[in-house]
Amino acid sequence: MQVFYIARRFCVFLLIVWLAATLNFFLPKLSGQDPVRTKLAAEAQLGGHVQAGMEQMVKEYEARFGLDKPVWRQYLTYLDDVTHLRFNYSIANYPRTVNDLILEAMPWTVGLLGTTTLLSFAIGTFLGALLAWPRAPAWMRWLMPPLWALHAIPFFLLGLMLLYLFAFILQWLPTFGGYSPGAQPGWTWGFALDVFWHALLPALSIILVATGGWALGMRGMMVTTMGEDYVVFAEAKGLRSLTIFTRYCLRNAILPQVTALAIALGQILSGAVLVEVIFGYPGLGALLFQAIRENDHFLIQGIVFTVIVALGIATLLMDLIYPWLDPRISHRGG
Q1: Global pTM?
Q2: Which of 138, 192, 197, 287 is most buried, judged by most C-beta within 10 A?
């Protein structure tokens, strides 16, 4: 029964990925724009005149990118490419491939957003649990208004505020980029410290906003859990307060949080787009923003498909391990 359930869920995962990939292919074509012609025209304008032989160049590049074929042939080629994780050349960065650009930007986004997501989850979940616990210190009640206020501020707006305060006014932190200009990337402590220094402001803008959301969600679940019969029974048995808090309340209230964490981890590949753009951080979010500005269809499709697969895998894994987290849930009824 469990093997059948896993196989069925995997088939649903493949179906969702196929549907999303199909939309990912056709939606950019609905704009009606010719990405090759747009790119060549923009480069010609930089020279102050329209280059001779524009039509021949357009036809040559369309043939190289496979855009001269019928749509159904392009679609089949696209499905074959995404099955093998090939995403053609980048129109705006030719002859570089989409795979190369994504692989360069992915470690920056995963490192920044993966770390900030886990930190904000851990801090917010712990604070939310304590805020709902009657025996928590009284001073923690003062944390709720700041958490509410910070959670209501968008990532990019708080990033602009922090940038203005710490980079322009106090001049404590750098304003732009993933590392200092002229620095040589490498596995050295000096370069690692430089990267950390540049990531501090975008990381703070994400953590300060996201922590409030995790805390408010956990607080609501804790309030609900503390009214359950098994918690009342545990108190009647005279169990220690710490045991009731950790084994009865926290353990059951954290399950929806874990589900939300899996989805959040699946979304980190898309990046906090505006945060990366504001700070000039060389991640997938800034790369996607650049691709949209330059109408680079292949790069947009590659990034969006990567995000789709990451979300699908995160959801699938969470669906499969959820019975392990909560024994009351079984695959037999799926």
Answers
A1: 0.77
A2: 287
